[in-house]
Design a protein that fits this description.
It is built from six helices and seven strands. The protein is an alpha/beta fold. The protein has one domain: Vaccinia Virus protein VP39 (Rossmann fold, 3-Layer(aba) Sandwich). The chain has a seven-stranded mixed beta sheet with strand order 3-2-1-4-5-7-6, sandwiched between helices. The longest helix is centred in the first third of the chain and has 17 residues, at 8-24. Pfam families: DUF938.
């Protein structure tokens, strides 16, 4: 029998991310989460953001573990997970008020990051917000020694994974009708980039 998965990084960052999301995802609306993983973020955030309907999504291989978390939730504000793969040309999803992703951008390849921003531009409503959490480089430079070491570890694990340059991600966002609204410094040398779909 499968054990319920647990992502320590979710437990470490969920409160600080929630504190930011409370200032961003203010109006009632629908959220699409890209790369939900275990589903722990969806469970935690919806407990404290009751005005949001949360749509988790990830590769199909993640769904069995995610459902073990979602099945314990007593409210009905989390939908069943969607199969989301950035390499798919289309997603079976309606346009959303908000899109959120955490710790996905540095795992996927640069080409896949470009595809992800294309999907976000397609499925985000006019004026909607995309909150993108994780580490980023600026002007080709690491923001800390720990991020430099983390990048080495990522590339050893998968040669296509790496910390992406902010300027490259910004160009992908701009190409898909989004402008930077905020760049928020977070603990452990992470950021939350907030993109707004041009209205």
């Amino acid at each position: 029998m499968m054990n319920k998965p647990n992502a320590p990084s979710c437990e470490q960052n969920q409160q600080v991310i929630l504190d930011v999301l409370k200032t961003l995802f203010i109006e009632p609306g629908d959220v699409l989460e890209i790369g939900s993983g275990t589903g722990q973020h969806a469970v935690f955030f919806t407990e404290y953001l009751p005005h949001l309907i949360w749509q988790p999504g990830d590769l199909e291989a993640e769904h069995a573990g995610m459902k073990m978390w979602l099945d314990e939730v007593i409210h009905n504000r989390i939908k069943q997970p969607l199969v989301l793969d950035v390499d798919m040309p289309f997603w079976s999803v309606d346009k959303k008020d908000y899109i959120f992703t955490a710790n996905t951008t540095h795992i996927i390849s640069l080409a896949q990051a470009e595809k992800m921003l294309s999907h976000v531009g397609k499925y985000l409503k006019q004026g909607g917000l995309f909150a993108q959490y994780g580490p980023f480089n600026y002007n080709g430079n690491y923001t800390s020694e720990s991020n430099a070491n983390f990048d080495v570890w990522l590339k050893q694990r998968n040669p296509y994974s790496c910390i992406k340059d902010f300027e490259t991600i910004e160009s992908f966002a701009n190409q898909n009708g989004m402008k930077l609204l905020k760049d928020i410094e977070m603990p452990a040398n992470n950021r939350i980039l907030v993109w707004q779909k041009n209205s």
